[in-house]
Amino acid sequence: MSENTSNTNTNNNATSNTSNSSNTNSTTSIAAAGAVSSCNGVGPSTAMMNGHIGTHFTSKNNFENYSGSKDTYLSIPQFYAGRSVFITGGTGFMGKVLVEKLLRSCPDIKNIYLLIRPKRGHEVSQRLNELLEAPLFEKLRREKPKDLSKVIPISGDITSEELGISESDQALLCRNVSIVFHSAATVKFDEKLKLSVTINMLGTKRLVELCHRMMSLDALIHVSTAYCNCDRTEVSEVIYAPPYNPDDIISLVNWLPEDTLDKLTPSLIGDRPNTYTFTKALAEHMLLKEAGNLPVAIVRPSIVTASLNEPFAGWIDNLNGPTGLLSAMAKGIFRTIVCEENCIADVVPVDIVINLMITAAWRTASHKTDNLLIYNCCTGQRHPITWGKFVNYAVDHVRKHPLEGCAWYPGGSLRNSPTINAVNAFVVHYIPAYILDVMARLVGKKPIFVKIQNKIAKAVECLNYFATHEWQFKDDNVCALLQTLSPKDRDNFVFDVTTINWEKYMERYVLGFREFLFKQKPQSLPGSRKKMMRLYYIDLLTKVFMVICTWRFLMSRSKRLNAVWSSFLQNILRFVRLLPFL
Question: pTM above 0.70?
Fold first, then answer.
C-alpha cells in the first residue's frame, strides 16, 4: 500500500451512542468491537463493566487469524514502504524508540516527520542532531547511516494554536503523511491542571484538526494510559463516559485564574489521583467526538519501563516512575515505601508498547471498519509480576551489579502502614541525610542529601496510589491482534508479554540504568563489587551495634528484663555444661 493511497471514509457514529457526558454518575461506556475471549480464539463478545453493558459497535470478524497465505498478507514492513509518518512526542522516551524501530525494521519507509519544539539557544535541526547522536541510534549510525536523513524536523509546539506549525509545513504534512502517532503528553503526575489540559487535551484536539486536512491519512494512533480509568478496578478496552464534558473543562481552564483553578483541582479530579489520569480520560472522549470519520486507534500502556530487547536490552533515558526509586535504592539512599507487595506491578517494557503501536497502525489502515479500537498494553492479565517480586529482583541485581559511589548497602522494605513507614523513613532516610549534610558542611562542601530525600519523598507521594492499588486491565484486542500477524511479523514486532522472563528482565533493567542513566561502563563493575562487599560488612556491623545498644538501653531501664536475661544466660550455661554427659 503506497503513501498516496486514498483514505477510505468510515462512518464513526459512536458519539451519538454516548450519554450526556456532563453527568458525573453516568454508567454509559463506548465499547470497542472485536474483543475476544482468549489468545487462542477470536470471536465477538459484549463488554461488561461493573454490571453495565457498554454500547457496542456493530461489526463481525474484526480480527481474522493469520491464514498463512503470502498472496493476500501484507507484512508490516511492506505496509510502511513508501509511506511518510508524523510523530508528536518524538523526542520523548517512547518517541525515540518509535523512530529507531521504524527506521530499523521498516527500511523502505519514506520519511519520518518529528514535531520538535525550539528551545532557547537550540534550533530544531540542532535538537534533532542531538537526538540522533543518542546511544539508542548507535546501530543505525553504524549500519544504515543514510537512513537517519529520513527523519525530518517540524518546528512546532503542542501547546500552541495549530501546534505552532508554519503554513508551509502544515501543507507538507497534509500532502505526504499517511500515518500519525500522537504520543506527546505531560506525564508529570503533579502537573497543574491548566498545563495538563493544554497539552493532553488541547494538544490532541489541535492534532485531530490537522489530521482532518491530511489527504491520505490511513491511521491515527493516540497514546493514552491504562490508568486513565483508574477510578475503576476493572478496565476494559472501551471509552468510558467522562465525569465532565471535555469542552466544559477546557472553557473552565481558559476562564478561571490559575490560583482559583488550583484550589478546585482536587474536587474536579474526584477519585483519580492526579491531573494526568484525569486529562487523559477526557482526551479519549474528546478524541472520539472530534475524530469523525478518521481511522483512529488508541493504545493504552500501563507503567512503561526499560526496553526488553530492542534496540538493546535495558535501554532507559529517564528517572520517571519506578526507575527513579530503583536508582535511589541502588545508591543506598532509599530503603522504605508504602506498597502492597502482593499487588500486581503492571509494568511493560517500552519496546513492547512501540511494537504494538506500529502494528495497531498497520491494522487500522489495512482493515477499515466503523470501530475505534482500543488496545490495553499491559502485563497484569497475561503475565503478572507482584510488587514484592519486582522489588526483590531489583534488590538482588543492584547488589550483583552495583553502581559506583553507593552511599550505603542497598536494601528495601515494603510496608502496609503509612505511619510505620513514616517513622522508618525518618530513621533510615532523614537522620543519615542530616548527618551527611553536617559532615559536608564541616569539610566545606555543599549539603545535598536532605534535598535529595525531599525530592525522593515527593516522587514516592506521586507513586503511592499505584503501589497500593490493583487493576484488571482487559487486553482482548491486543491478544486478537497478535493472532493476525504472520510468524515473521510476530518475531520482528514482538508485543506478546508472555515472552518476558521477569528475573532476566530486571537484571537487564538494572544494567540499563547503570549504563545509560549513570553513564557507568561495565569495566567498572569489579571495583564496584569490591566496594559493595565492604558496604555489606559495614551494614552488618552497624546493625549488630544498633541491636546491642538498643538491648543495653532496655536492660538499663527494666529490672524485670534484666532478671529474665540473666536467667536465660544461666540456663544456657547449664545446658553447655551438660553436653559432655549427653
Answer: yes
